[in-house]
Amino acid sequence: MKYLCAKNNLLSCTLSSIKSCSKLLDIGCGIKPFTNIECTIHICCEPYKEYIEVLNEKYKDLLVLNMSWQDVVKNFPCNSVDTILIIDVIEHLEKEEALDLLSKTLDIASEQVVIFTPLGFFEQDHPDGIDAWGLHGGKWQTHRSGWYPEDFPENPNGHWDFYICNDFHHLNNKEELLPEPKGAFWAIWSLDK
After folding, report:
1. How far apart are CA 29 and CA 43, in angstroms?
2. Which residues of 23-57 are buried (b: 16+ CB within 10 A; e: fewer)?
3. Beta-carbon contacts of residue 79 (< 8 Å; ≥ 6 apart)
4. 32-37 long-range Cβ contacts below 8 angstroms, 24+ apart
5. Chain segment 146-176, per-residue pLDDT in tens
6. I want to staple 83 with a disulfide (CB 3.0 to 4.6 A). Which of 7, 21, 100, 153 is the partner?
7. Which pTM was predicted?
8. Would you put residue 69 in left (φ > 0), alpha (ψ -120 to 50) or beta?
9. What is the spatial distance between Cα 38 and Cα 22, in angstroms, rounded to a whole number?
């Protein structure tokens, strides 16, 4: 199902569809884990060591692992966590690789997979290697693919819901005004029971 939302209520509409959980896996959270979901255990898997240092300093109550998304699908067994977050991650991979990882990720979650990404391709690069946080993770922040709800794979065990805002981004990664706003959306896969 697709839902159109205004920017100011996109997050609240989305959060109303995300279940509270015991074990939450946050893949590629950078230095900002998503803490809006109630959970007992919050696991952050982050591939870049400089971001891990920040996470360990600022978020002592989270379990932080030095793992890429590729490592996650190889090492986390089926149904080992309730909910998986992949926020502002898939656009940083080539589409074919992200689709492969996403299909494997659906087996790891016992309840939901929650994704946030720009609507369509939204150019972003950091030629000097410095990211928006002033750290040296620029190569991790380059956008390599664009996404629409139609791109998400069917799965016989669950269904997708999409919360879409057509004018979410008004600034680029350098805080410059865009000629036209760019959209963004949440995709939530829920296991059918």
Report:
1. 10
2. bbbbbbbbbebbeebebeebbbbbbbeebbebbee
3. 107, 108, 109, 110
4. 33/59, 33/62, 34/85, 34/87, 36/11, 37/83, 37/85
5. 999 999 988 889 999 999 999 999 998 778 8
6. 21
7. 0.92
8. alpha
9. 8
Distance CA 17, CA 114 (A): 10
- Phi, psi of 83, deg, nearest 5: -130, 140
Which domains does the chain show, CATH number per domain?
2-191 (3.40.50.150)
Count of other CB atoms within 10 angstroms of residue 173? 17
pLDDT in tens, 12-68: 999 999 999 999 999 999 999 999 999 999 999 999 999 999 999 999 999 999 999
**The 3-state secondary structure of the chain, one letter per residue:** CEEECCHHHHHHHHHCCCCCCCEEEEECCCCCCCCCCCCCEEEEECCCHHHHHHHHHHCCCCEEECCCHHHHHHHCCCCCEEEEEEECCHHHCCHHHHHHHHHHHHHHEEEEEEEEEEEECCCCCCCCCCCCCCCCCHHHHCCCCCECHHHCCCCCCEEEEEEEEEEEEEECCCCCEEEEEEEEEEEEEEECC
Which two three-digit tokens encode residue 11? 């997050």
Rg over CA atoms, the chain: 16
